[in-house]
Amino acid sequence: MTSLTVRNLTKSFGALKVTDDVSLAVEPGEIHAIIGPNGAGKTTLISQLSGQLGSDGGSVSLGDRDITRLSMPDRVKLGLARSFQITSVLPGFTTLENVALAVQAREGSSFRFFGTVAREEALNRAALKALAEAGLDHRADVLAKSLSHGEHRRLELAIALATEPSVLLLDEPLAGVGGEDAETFVANLQRLKGRFTMVLIEHDMDAVFQLADRVSVLVYGRIIATGTPQAIRSDPQVRAAYLGEEEEAA
Amino acid sequence: MSDATATLTAPRRALTGRLKAALVLFVLFALMPPLAAALNDPFYVLIGTRILAFAIAAMALDLILGYGAMVSFGHAAYLGFGTYAVAILASWGVNDLVLQILAAIAISAIFALVTGAISLRTKGVYFIMITLAFGQMAFFFFISLSAYGGDDGVALMQRSTVLGMDLLKSDFGLYYTTLAILVALFVLCHRIVGSRFGRVLTGIRENPTRMEAIGYSPFRYQLTAFVISGCITAVAGVMLANQAQFVSPAFMSWHRSGELIVMVVLGGVGTLAGPIAGAVAALLLEEWLGALSEHWKLFFGVFLVLMVLFSPRGITGLLEKAGIARRQE
Questions:
Q1: Phi, psi dihedral angles at A217 (to 5 degrees)
Q2: Is A159 within 8 Å of B214 when comparing Cβ atoms?
Q3: Could you tell me if A175 and A248 lie in one domain?
Q4: Which of A28, A69, A177, B59 sits 20 to 30 Å CA-CA off B222?
Q5: ipTM of this predicted complex?
């Protein structure tokens, strides 16, 4: 059984078809990358998969469960988490608190009005574990708004990890991260590989070809090819639509 | 970082700073009546009770305005429910404060649940307007309630009793009872803010999309906070009715709702102790400026503008600048 199945998904903004009959079958444990030029509709697709955006047609299934009509919070509870391309954290909360909230969401009731949540060791411990996995545990005490850009990207990842997803949607986790930072980040993701299924949107082609088991190419809202990184690299249609541009630019 | 309990120092520091500020306020409140008596100005005890009652309401509003980013412009309705709970129950011969408070809370919970559920479908300025509209509906309901004086209101024959005791008969008794309730409700609000629920509420204020992305549906938490805030405000209304010994729809006009927001902003949004200080400042200024000139609201307006311009975080912000209270992280 596939982890995440997308059938004939569509979305239009006015006359513009942003997601045009997209079908995907993401296998358990794989990293499935979605690449495509700017404006291809990658973030829209992720938002539809996560439930942040409604779809005009088609269906999304998590395992064998149809989740097309479920809200984002309900999808998260079933194990489908996402990270954001543009860092979206709680700026006035510490790094640890940001993650602890995700643990709390997964772990039980938030209708508790008395105990001091900051002293709940189980929450803090689980949050620290997720922070460590994202390589950010040394910054647990810092307010999220004081983090550097690279650290924000790690926090995004840590929060997503703390929800203990079965499928994780990563929207350009490396956006704006360069050099060594990017390398350690890729190594981080590599370590997480196999623990859950990942759908990865990424512009950094080195990272994509290092990490992905399969790659789908999205152009103008349509998937024009799906295959192994090698197959995609040599696909003439893909080269024409996407990779070629980069080579010319370079 | 090895010790999971040793984390979160920054916000905890801000919290204890506020706890200290509140403690100072409460000590000052406790010292006020003997001082007023010594100065032969017992009238201040009654004004003081009024201030304490409004402090309860301002703090309750801060719970949703400051921690939940819900600017309710109809909170005077709950003050009104509190005052009328006293008037109506008293007219039926029920004078017990505890029963009056329970009735006020019950009616406020229902009103907040229904109006909150509808209001929370909107955001920002629309939320402000729709809460204002519901507040006005409650206001006009009591205007047309001719059995209880309608527009003119109704005078109370006596103050409430507390479990058969005449605790509120003297101005001192009323003052200290109100103070005790304020302290208890402050502790309650402080606990809520630091709890799991409070963290979720604050998280929704900071970034609702992020909260949804980790599995929270903001609506349930916002509505719960809205109801809690309405119920606490109703308690303030019960004490206010005893202070004034008079109940009228004037307690629930939209001006009152505005004044509550002013107290919260003046004191410092999202601090709990700040709005208590804000209530003190606003009502004392009203008292003093009102004695100086008929047009005192003009001067109050100037003061408010200066405050917002130079200390957007209110009295709390001023104290932080002076290094007395710790800056909110």
A1: -110, 120
A2: yes
A3: yes
A4: A69
A5: 0.87
